[in-house]
Design goal:
Layout: H1 2-5, H2 13-16, H3 19-37, E1 41-44, H4 49-61, E2 66-70, H5 77-89, E3 93-96, H6 106-109, H7 111-129, E4 134-136, E5 153-157, E6 160-163, H8 171-180
Parallel strand pairs: 1-2, 1-4, 2-3, 4-6
Antiparallel strand pairs: 5-6
Helix pairs in contact: 3-4, 4-8
The structure holds iron/sulfur cluster (SF4).
Length: 234
């Protein structure tokens, strides 16, 4: 992806580009990558606001683009219900879940291990089973302290490119896009949540850091589950 790689953005573009310019840029990134990777380009849909925006953008590029959802036994019931609706609307979304037996309170005693087993491992399954060479995410550089250094196009694993097409979008621009296209979102947002994860590890936050409500009270607070930081492909 040499042509796209050169577009890795300077941070000032977050404030400089208009909403419309960002949308066009995101569509172009997906379109170029889809042209290069075809069916090996797959969207990782976490069912959060950013993911559903990216999913919508991808479907504008091509209705044939596939996606996967990684879910866990600990997702809130609203998220599980929303997932069922999304799968009904988009049967091409495949669901991955690790049902292995783990200690009941692993999210308390070792949240990194819990995320590794319940989130990272099934993401690896999806990447392998769906023959993914380019996965597309809803990661944004203004979400929180751990997300400032990502690029629009990255390659952390051999033979696996990661595309972050809405990297430059602000939180309000995501909502602007979803409102503009009347995209359905998880009902938990109406209750004040801003970043959604598993039920025991997600709180409502009013912090500037959008992800500050994740893993509250642990060393992982406002951090990452691991899918963006750990190897995904052998
Ligand atoms: S978010 Fe919490 S419950 Fe979910 S996998 Fe990670 S530690 Fe476990």
């Amino acid at each position: 992806m040499n042509a796209v790689k050169e577009k890795n953005p300077p941070a000032y573009l977050v404030d400089k580009l208009t909403f419309n310019e960002k949308v066009e840029r995101s569509l172009a990134l997906i379109e170029n990558a889809y042209h290069e990777f075809g069916d090996a380009l797959v969207v990782a849909n976490s069912l959060g606001k950013d993911s559903v925006a990216v999913w919508h953008l991808a479907k504008r590029v091509s209705p044939a683009i596939r996606g996967f959802i990684v879910t866990t036994r600990f997702k809130p019931k609203e998220t599980k219900e929303f997932m069922k609706e999304q799968i009904r609307a988009y049967p091409e979304l495949r669901v991955y879940q690790n049902d292995d037996k783990i200690p009941e309170d692993l999210y308390n005693t070792d949240p990194d291990r819990c995320c590794e087993l319940l989130k990272v491992k099934p993401t690896r399954w999806a990447i392998e089973e769906m023959n993914v060479s380019c996965w597309v995410t809803g990661l944004r550089c203004t979400e929180g302290r751990t997300r400032t250094d990502y690029k629009e196009v990255e390659q952390r694993d051999l033979e696996l490119v990661k595309l972050n097409p809405i990297l430059l979008w602000k939180e309000r621009e995501v909502w602007q896009y979803l409102a503009l296209y009347n995209v359905e979102v998880n009902p938990l947002y109406a209750r004040g949540y801003r970043s959604l994860g598993c039920e025991p590890c997600t709180r409502i936050t009013t912090d500037d850091n959008e992800r500050a409500g994740r893993w509250v009270g642990t060393s992982k607070c406002g951090g990452e589950c691991g899918i963006h930081t750990r190897p995904l492909k052998a």
